[in-house]
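Q: How do we represent a protein-ligand complex in a form that can be generated token by token?
A: Start from the inputs.
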Amino acid sequence: MTPVAPVGPHPLHHAAPLPPFDLVIFGGSGDLALRKLLPALFHRYRDGQIVDGTRIVGIARDARSDDDYREQVRLALAAEAEKEAGGTAALADFLKLLRYQRLDLANDGGWEEFSTSMRSEQRVRVFYLAVAPQLFAQAAQQLDKWKLIDADTRVVVEKPIGTDRASADAINDALGHVFAERQIFRIDHYLGKETVQNLTALRFGNALFEPLWRAEHIDHVQITVGETVGVEGRAPYYDRAGALRDMVQNHLLQLLCLVAMEPPTSLDADAIRDEKLKVLRALRPIDNANAAQLVVRGQYRGGAAEGRAVSGYADELGRGSNTETFVALKAEVRSWRWAGVPFYLRTGKRLPSRVSEIVVTFRQVPHSIFEGVSELAPNRLVLRLQPDESVTMWLMNKVPGPGGLRLRHVPMDLSFAEAFGGRQADAYERLLMDVVRGNPMLFMRRDEVEAAWKWIDPIRAAWESSNEAPKPYTAGTWGPSAAVALIERDGRTWHEDAA
Ligand code: BG6
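Then emit the structure tokens for the protein with 6-O-phosphono-beta-D-glucopyranose bound:
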């Protein structure tokens, strides 16, 4: 592809430096901090967006020195840093921004000293609660009690926001008690993924798609988020969550919203979130009456994944469980634009490949003049989120050369990654910097979280009342056969790149 001149500055390569800020990570030595947050901050430092003078504080309950903490972070980031020239030296400089604070949310020890040191600077202060949601309320109370919240303070919370509508309300109330809604950043890291943002750019930056983006021209939409990993060390959390709460309630529904929403009037955070909310509210309810037809849940048994033999979910857990590790469902958005267009959603652990994609399948041509020559496949727009981010349009094309008029479905690459070049930033990089800048566009507003739970809760209730166990599937396959039947009943198939 011929490189094109980017329109406007490249968001990563021209990231404006931010004034020094404070970022405090509760759960500073946890998995999320070491695997996602600190690497993301390091890259933003390396690109000059985070400047010296910024303070990054890791918080945990055990005793350790700043140097111990820096060493732990250095070990976690070393391999990543070594990938780039000068990375190791940059990492050494980055570590100087870090400090450690021992704090327990349940008691006051250390809080006074911590508060005094934080309040010594008047600047943007971000508290990232990378801890279990049961601790969010306590954290909010302590921050308030120790006078750490002012107009420039922001709080970031990870999903899951609760386990159902009622518990989400309790968390949101506790946060809302001490923070204004504009200060609360509910992260859904899928919204920070490059291709997900490109969906908005494609839909609303081009005149081409919008006239076609409706029931008259779109046959159906598929959203697949497949993972090869099992639940690993997260079983205690995962067994209480399951795929519906862990992935569908947030990531998959957010993707559905971005595909289905009406054009917002601007990029203003509320303009976009208002449109997403309308989609969530327009979803056809799934409950006792129709869950058996519209939803399939599964749980993996032993099999082969990631090139080796792996145990089943119950074996990993050490006991039987009715928690689903796979969900496929057929959703419908009840609106003029989408009437009758199914949205098939599918996600699971221990699937054959780690692939996440949104596939928009257009309708067949109304009449084929090529009868007897070859079968016409419908156009498909495939937005691949991972592993390799890309946008592809599948078109019918003539096979070049002699031999009559032969047609073939071929992919046209609409992906500009090559032209823009450089490293692909992780979603957390953008999201963390948006928090510091105070831009909530890519974060979930309270009413979105509520609307999502309102749709999810009756599905869970239907499962609970049915007493049916999740359908087994062998690790390394695309879920129970019922998931294939779900879409094939409608005369459609899962997109073959993913299936
Ligand atoms: C998290 C889920 O939100 O997303 C995990 O809790 C899941 O279970 C992860 O593995 C997937 O994220 P990504 O970016 O690797 O697709």
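The first helix runs from residue 31 to 46. The domain at 22-190 is CATH 3.40.50.720 (Rossmann fold).
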